[in-house]
Amino acid sequence: MAEYDVIIIGAGPGGYVCAIRCAQLGLKTACVEGRETLGGTCLNVGCIPSKAMLHASELYHEATTNFTKMGLMGQSPSVDLPKMVDYKQETVNSNTGGIEFLFKKNKVDWIKGYGSIPEAGKVKVGDDTHTAKHIVIATGSEAASLPGVEVDEKVVVTSTGALELKKVPNKMVVIGGGVIGLELGSVYSRLGAEVTVIEYQDAIIPGADGEIQKNFLKLLKKQGIKFELGAAVSGTEVKKNKATVSYKSRKDDSEHQIDADIVLLATGRRPYTENLGLDALGVEMDRGMIKTDAHWATNVKGIYAIGDVIAGPMLAHKAEDEGMAVAETIAGQKGHVNYGVIPGVIYTHPEVANVGKTEEQLKQEGRKYKVGKFPFMGNARAKSHFAGDGFVKMIVDAETDRILGAHVIGPMAGDLIHEVCVAMEFGAAAEDLARTCHAHPTFSEAMREAALACGDGAIHA
Ligand code: NAI
Questions:
Q1: Where, in this chain's numbering, is NAD(+) bound (predicted)?
Q2: How confident is the model over 258-272, as pLDDT tens digits?
């Protein structure tokens, strides 16, 4: 039993960042985590391992498609999936080990085990009860279930099982055309699986800019991924390590079935708040999420919540920002998160990235806007990399030229988007970005060209 200023429950990107910031601000801090390693879903079974698999499969694809075009001849590589999974695990280990090092460096105590809150000011882990003036819940999320679909993590898998497959499936069915489905579907498609994505809506990545949705779908189809849109999966049946997926067309109610060696369930995630004791404490909830005020405080004094357990996009970086901001708030500073400037990235090839408003949202708000677009085909660097697919779309206020949003599909989109994030944080106009010198030849010139297209016109389009 020990006394702390702050105890954070959960060591994912929200929790561990919050813990480090609390310690840096002079608070005696502990973080409770029951997993063998720190880093939560993101580092252990989410963002980081999937990026390793995306990187390896992209290089394989590059080697088998573009190498000979560049005069790189010789034997094409073959896929050894268990070895690729080992590489993925090494990447995970070095990252989770890094957080352990940072905890030691910043003097954050790692309390091993799963915590609950018997009363405000107390956190129970195993037989020990620790006291803390402030408690931050950062317990994240888990894959949402779908009626009729029983996950066994062998044939019917979530993203966790999909990162541990023993061999590349011949046929893979992905339920859900959202971020997880398209990222992991891309990995196995590139490694040789026949991938079919079944999506309930009539478009992939619901909520994204319409033009991006259409272009992205076209590019993924060109890569060989099949799509059944406007189709609701009603169940899966597994026999002798093979699955049959049943789905219904929403257009005409027709029933269909498709066979698969592996089925990936990727229909969203839900907040993970079980066994914390929130009911008994009287913590207010809203549709499964913990309700917080603008300063991440719950209705119970001294208890805060951040990340996937509260409202907003379930993104590691959103949780990180909240983690830092709530630490600052607890330390008596003015923690703040600008929810209008949270980028979203899909790490497929090409990458897809967005920040701010979509055209559809602005139309709904009745706001007058202008669009500046630039295709990567007009970007010299992209052409030399066989990466001319995609475009940058910048949306600005029609009268003031202030940037309201940007949507990018193309090479390095996930990095390029941050130029716009910084611009938006400073309330910049497209002209500000257009008048900023960009090194040539870089992919970032496409961002400048889209900004130029909001004014007198892009140069290379
Ligand atoms: P998602 O919400 O992005 O997509 C789920 C999709 O499943 C939706 O398009 C939905 O219409 C569809 N769906 C739902 N029920 C269905 C049914 N019965 N039949 C067919 N389709 C159905 O959820 P996803 O991909 O599972 O990701 C979960 C969370 O993790 C998201 O919040 C995502 O942002 C986050 N994440 C973010 C990543 C990134 O930033 N790169 C990577 C991976 C996950």
A1: 176-183, 199, 268
A2: 999 999 999 999 999
